[in-house]
Amino acid sequence: MTVSRRGLLVGGLTLAGLAACSRSTVLADPAEPLPPIGDRLAALGRRHNARIGVYAVDLGSDRTVEVGADDMLAMCSTFKAYASAAVLQRAQQGRLALTDAVLVGRSDIREHSPVTEPRVGSTMTLAELCQAALQQSDNAAGNLLLRTLGGPSAITDFARSIGDDRTRLDRWETELNTAIPGDPRDTSTPRALGSGFRAVLTGDVLDGAHRQMLEDWMRANQTSSMRAGLPGGWATADKTGSGGYGTTNDVGIAYGPQGQRWLLSIMTRSATDDPDADSLRPLIGEIAAAVAPELSQPA
User: Fold this and answer.
1) S-S: 98 plus which of 1, 127, 135, 249, CB 3.0-4.6 Å?
2) 34 touches 28 (CB < 8 A)
3) Residue-wise pLDDT tens digits, 127-174
């Protein structure tokens, strides 16, 4: 492990299920020095029988935490942030309008389509579809955005255009969530996906108005897992994703009450090969809580 004033780098971990670890072991007495972040995340992995990938950056100081940051993992519904950003980019280029109407057909509905299903037979605007996809992870909305953009390969192309050379999308909802170990389809890495989210939420991929629109939509995300682990008074603009083999992800920017901004890219899956393994949603919040003290340290 290499620790520097500018960053804290921990090599990739494959965290198998060993002996259980109590919460008091993971969350040390605040009066005592915390164990190294690698040890704390390894303990979380053992307790949840999970594989963990993290790429986290304090955007003010560039202090960084990396654990399995370059491991390829299924991206699942996190792609919906890229899809929405691509729609916004085309809107600012005049190639489409956010008010464009899209017909929602019965055949479009997939499992977990809480916003679009009641609208079958009517139309929704592209802006409404972006909101549904980002805030409630509506799967039919995700597919309708993909159809507008030209299919899953358009997400891969968009990723490359913003400097993300690892993310790829190959299939539609809900097939893209199979998350079969070793399957390269529909995968990314914590570093690649996190850097892409940073580009669309803080960079010049979008102009100010469209970037603010994306941030506002994502701040209203109703599925966030990372918020539970952040200090009081913090908000997030994030996108979750979940799928087979316990795959559970959450990627976005966390905003502190004193102007802090943290990029948090957290990707996890079960360390077992059970396609029906339980979601690791509680683990995401615990990872965010473990990373927070590292990012809070002075540069």
Assistant:
1) 127
2) yes
3) 999 999 999 999 999 999 999 999 999 999 999 999 999 999 999 999
Whole-angstrom Cα Rg for the chain = 19
Q: Read off the pLDDT of residues 278-297 as tens digits, 9 standing for 90 and up.
A: 999 999 999 999 999 999 98
Q: What angle do CA 252, 258, 261 make, to 5 degrees?
A: 20
* CB 211 within 8 Å of CB 226: no
Q: Using an 8 Å Cβ cutoff, are 130 and 84 in contact? A: yes
pTM given for the model: 0.90
DSSP state of 234: -
| CA 272 – CA 176 distance, rounded (Å) | 20
To the query of whether residue 77 is one of the catalytic residues in this protein, the response is yes
Distance of CA 130 to the CA centre of its chain: 16
From edge to edge, which strands make up the β-sheet containing 50-58? 2-3, 8-9, 64-67, 50-58, 261-270, 248-255, 235-242
Closest CA to 169 of 148, 191, 192, 146: 146
What CATH class does 2-296 carry?
A: alpha beta
Burial readout 129-146 (b: 16 or more C-beta within 10 A, e: otherwise):
bbbbbbbbbbbbbbbbbb
pLDDT band at 79 (very low <50, low <70, confident <90, very high): very high
Count of C-beta atoms within a 10 Å radius of residue 209 = 10
Q: Which of 77, 113, 137, 225 is catalytic?
A: 77
Tokens 């997400």 -> residue: 155
Tell me which residue of 77, 26, 15 sits closest to 49, measured CA to CA.
15
